[in-house]
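Something for you to look into today, if you have time. Could you write out one complete protein record for me, on any chain you like? The space below this message is yours for that.
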Amino acid sequence: MASWRFLVGLAASCGWSASAAMLPPIEQWTTSNGALVVFVAAPEIPMLDVRVVFAAGSARDGEHPGVAELVSALLEEGTRELPADQFHAALEATGAQLGASSLRDMAWLSLRTLSAPAQRTSALGLLAQVLHAPRFVAVDFERQRQRQLSGLRQDLESPGTLARQAFLAALYGEHPYGRPSAGTLASVAALSLAETEAFYAQYYVAHNATIAIVGALSRDEARASAEILSAALAAGVPAPPLPPAPTARKSAPQHVAFDATQSHLLVGQIGIARDDPDYFALLLGNHVLGGNGVVSLLFEEIRERRGLSYGVESHFEPMTLPGPFVASLQTRGEQLDEASALLRAQITAFVEHGPTPAALEDARRNLIGAFPLRIENNSKILENIAAIGFFKLPLDYLGRYVARLEAVTLEEVRAALQRHLKPAAMTVVSVGRATAPKPAAAR
């Protein structure tokens, strides 16, 4: 019998719609000390991929901006008993790979290893050691802090990064989503080793964890693997709810002076959370507007017809709370006012009228045709099921993905756009040589 991975590949190459029958079932349970587990058996290759996710991103920094990112970096420094060189030598001996990263909502450790019992046991044991007793020592702390400070200094020379930071600050104000994920030069310089230890102790706990597992394991083997990792953690409690996101509010256009040939422009507002019922309608609508690369409406109108930008795009960033909707472009400074006015006018018209039936169908076929690529290998499946567990999405989310896209009507897309996007109140931020874009004319 052909494997599901072969069928997915065949669907992608032939343009068939992926069906639920092609997808591996997602199983879910809770470990003995409270960690959520999501598991997909993938017996085709003898590999195991694991991601342990915590609600421990920069939105949890509190009074110590930058601490979440610093903690994530320290988790690759080894364990209390094994410094980084010895720890990574032990990993290499098993053929395993370990990584750590963080975003605004979440932070995670990931492991890839052979699924054979000997290698699996050794690699899981090393990951469990990191979870149980990460290496928070002064010399490693200072090295990682200096690395983070170096990155922040580089950010000051990046107009794209400055535009992004100014945009989020304008949208969210003092809300945790509005702060730089890596902190500031002042906040990171003030961080202490004790604060990183306290952050880890509070948030890297079983009741705040999702363990995603994909690989050539039986359910019993997956359960045993999850218990090894979960047992390494204190039980703890879930992270408290984040403060509500602010409501969209109109603000004057903001400009950050920066000596660069190209000006960066961001236009947008607070959008939707990851579990919003309009997710698929807005995914389709935005794909027409600016999410489909060189065949999107914004690219056609701004780049192809008028040559005002080399590229332009738009997207939603749904998170635990409503994340931003943003349309962005780069243009020459002397064209910034014109490009800004046109971008806002295109968004306004699109929200008012919605996509044409033909454009919507093209977007639908494009997203459905691309779906098999989202689950074409174990790493991508792992990323998807980790998100399903973390955001508490239904276990049939992947299985019904195509059906959900197929079911969305043109009227639902138009209604969702008008319900969520308010062009007249959108935030406009630019970085470059030109003056700030002028407010849009009254319509």
In short: The two ends are 61 Å apart (CA to CA). The longest strand covers residues 262-270. The CA atoms of residues 348 and 423 lie 5 Å apart. The chain has 16 helices and eleven strands.
